[in-house]
Known about the structure:
By secondary structure, the chain is mainly α. The protein contains 5 helices and no strands. Helix 1 (2-22) packs parallel to helix 3, helix 2 (33-61) packs parallel to helix 5 (138-177) and helix 3 packs across helix 4 (114-125). The protein is elongated and about 55 Å long.
Amino acid sequence: MNARYLAVGATLAGIAFVASHHGAGMVDWTAWWPVLAPVAWYLLSRCNEVFLAFYLDAFDKLRVNQRPSSALAWPTRVRLALNSYAELVLNFAVLYAMTPADWWQCGAQRPTSFTDLLTYSALTITTSGGGGFVARHWVPQLLTVYEVMCGLMLLVVSFTIYTGRGLSKRAATHLGKG
């Protein structure tokens, strides 16, 4: 299902990309909110699901002397985490694209296309900065903070635990053979 969710995120991002590049810059989605509200709900629920699933799974791996609740191998966990990471970048970019343009900083640094918001999302989730854009309204500000939290959960907590555990098992296996 992870790959399907990533495909849905990519499809929605593709639609937002085409819509923003077909017209003259950012699309004003405010008139479309009755139709797009279920899409926004889906995107937010997927972000919540990814965050919670990896949060619970990462801490499940840290339990001492207890069997893990899942038998997934560490390479599979890493692949799922990377797919989910890419999905989060796309989902947040589409959510940002659904916000009105005046919710972003006025002047030359206002995002003008979906590509700008995709870049903002990718830079935000890595906590390296927003690419010069600043959210003025509380909705994109809250989304930005939540995206940073999701990125930290996937990269720092989950990815570190998965690779650390997987590499330690691999090292133990090689030491046992030598």
